[in-house]
Amino acid sequence: MLSDIEIAQSAVMRPITEIAAAAGIPDDKLEQYGRYKAKLDLSLLDRTGENGRLVLVTAITPTPAGEGKTTTTIGLADGLKRIGKRVTVALREPSLGPVFGIKGGAAGGGYAQVVPMEDINLHFTGDFHAIGAANNLLAAMLDNHIYQGNALNIDPRTVTWKRCVDMNDRQLRFVTDGLGGKINGVPREDGFDITVASEIMAVFCLSDSISDLKERLSRIVVAYTYAGEAVTAGQLGAVGAMAALLKDALKPNLVQTLEGTPALVHGGPFANIAHGCNSVLATKMALKLGDYAITEAGFGADLGAEKFLDIKCRMAGLTPSAVVIVATVRALKMHGGLPKTALGEENLEALEKGLPNLLRHVHNIKDVYRLPSVVAINRFPTDTDKEIALVIEKCKELGVNVVLSEVWAKGGEGGEALAEEVVRLCEEEQGDFTYSYSLDGTIEEKITAIVQRIYGGRDVNILPAAQKQIERLTALGFGGLPVCMAKTQYSFTDDKNVPGAPEGFTVTIRNVRVSAGAGFLVALTGDIMTMPGLPKKPAAEGIDVTADGRITGLF
Q1: Is 424 a catalytic residue?
Q2: Catalytic residue among 161, 192, 204, 408
Q3: Of 58, 61, 70, 71, which is the active-site residue?
Q4: CA quadruple 108, 110, 115, 119: dihedral positive or negative?
Q5: Is 299 a catalytic residue?
Q6: For position 448, what pLDDT does the model report?
Q7: Does the pTM exceed 0.70?
Q8: CA–CA separation, 257 vs 109, rounded Å?
Q9: What is the helix (H) or strand (E) element at residue 349, kind and residue range?
Q10: Is 370 among the catalytic positions?
Q11: Radius of gyration over alpha carbons of the chain, in Å?
Q12: Are 476 and 332 in contact (CB under 8 A)?
């Protein structure tokens, strides 16, 4: 059996100019990065005519068994193309942290991939480097301002802005810098975030133009004065230079699937510590280029989909026409308590115990957000007919259809049935899109609404330090912003060891901070960290390059 990278490397890619031409993109709107990658001019957004339909792909709570959300997203797009639809897929760019860590790449799998897979998973077109440079320029200008006389009267103990690097590196979580004497800066405690957790990444992905980007950058809060007033990037005079670093990166990247479907891969915030969606610009451009725009949101629907719907759609004025919820029988059996080593055996009891996880996600999409949805079962050879029948039966009780997906093994052909159901939902079902909370409520009320309505919890425990932060942020005028929850992806709770669909639990909020440029508040729960670490055996140990420049072991 070929590995994902072997499948990708054996593919015959079409020149990116051909992919662009087939999507109706003229040559003068294309900036090529080699033969198979290009950036698209933002003026494509000015096209007249109706937008396509937006379809969101999300999933159950992740497990080590895997769910295949990105693979399903790509296979669905290829399936729609096979049944004669004009379609564009919009995805996030992978972070080097997971690529070299434990998760691996994020370009799909099997015969449902975007290519060139190695480029996408590594440096690609340099977007993440530009985002990191803009982030660190702001940090340098902030510390230089303090060193050069501190005209803004910044209290160094209140600096909230961290430097970033796109790598899992626990050694950088907490550092002390500015040491070595007066000429080397002002000593203070500091730290690094991974680039995908930087507010610059969130700003980048939520901006809809260069002018909007500059406005958002100017609002970023980096510290507070001795009097308790917020200090922004705009006050430091950093915005113009940051925007200059980001102006080319802001253009969406065009690549292709293995079957030649146009794919926009752009931006990549994590969904457990950020808002987990590709850029607004890529999504809106995908809607301009096809009758259907297929996109995904990170991790389970309680994280990526919640933030996609409550934050991204709210800010960008987007309304999905349908939602696909991806699950595997294997993962559901893990949610039912079965160890990974026993997943190949039929076990209806474990499956029934794990099904409530899927059903809660389905309920949220259908009854909280009021959107048409379908469950896509990413089928494995070990799944039995009885197990599939049980999933179909339970989902039908909620009025949601189940479609088997075989895109990993068959590509677009294995996604045709799912594509037909998605088309039916878009054309025949009428949603009544509603957010899970109102912006009019207090910060505490918004957090509580997410915990109770989306996670299924009973209550919220806001620690005293977090409560003080809420009061301060409310007084500073940030109380009307939406909330981005930073929570483990492995559970509805804030404890990664609690699978399934638990009830009656309490979520602890230990920190609340503002991302004023992005336009949301971040509530940190449990032991979530904004700088991951590498596992005992990182994936990087298995990656190599042959003498002729061929990459091996990437995924």
Answers
A1: no
A2: 408
A3: 71
A4: positive
A5: yes
A6: 98
A7: yes
A8: 11
A9: helix 348-363
A10: no
A11: 23
A12: no
